[in-house]
Amino acid sequence: MRERLLQLLRELALERNDDKAIDELQQRGLDRAAMRGLMLLPEVNQTSYGTKLVNGWKYPPMNYGRAGVEGSFLTRAALQSLGGIVANDPEEAVYIVAHTDAEGLLLNGGDKYQVTFAKGQTPPVDAFWSMTIYDNTNNLVANPIDRYSLGDRTTDLQVNADGSTTIYISRQPPEQAPQSNWLPAPEDDFYLVLRAYLPKAEIVSQTWEPPVPAASLVTPTRLRSVVLPSRMSSRTSRRVMSFVTLAGLPG
After folding, report:
1. What was the pLDDT predicted at 243?
2. DSSP 8-state assignment for residue 78
3. Under a CB-based contact definition with an 8 Å cutoff, are residues 109 and 216 in contact?
4. Which of 30, 56, 76, 78 could be bridged to 41 by S-S, CB 3.0 to 4.6 A?
């Protein structure tokens, strides 16, 4: 796949770093491909493209930290560069992402969610784990208590009577629940990143199952925000292949 991309660059004379070597029509085509790609990549991130879907959470591709080296250009562009900038090898850290709940609805501040780890079932790691919330611009969520993540380093994280641990995700503080377990959400769509540092074998092999983000209510607004969690939508798939063809990238 890498050779196919290099061949494209040779045909466009871009290997010589000479922008005068391509004609106006080719330049317009490249400009169009770049613009379409930038519009497409965020949509790819909301699907399960290249990932393993478990309970609404998406494990990254097994070659996530080596996508560029192995020629997985769409993975590198959409998941690694746009979504994360830097990617680790799985043995160092694994980032598991949730954009949807159990019903395939996009996570949204108009709802309330609970993520409950059964007793002894928090992320198995040799270092530490955390859950961070991001808005739909890939930024942390501003909130009055300056809390952006929770995890095993949260000193006052409360454990339920049965030994389980529940994280509450909502715009307003949860009622009749520990405030120390509350992760403030934005008004609009958001996503969660469950980070496992020095993960144990069951996370590296993607056999550990994170608990599903359980919604407590469904608002009319959210009913319009449905995605297909198990695969890329046919519309997105067509747009991906159109972009790949236009840019001359390997499929």
Report:
1. 40
2. I
3. no
4. 78
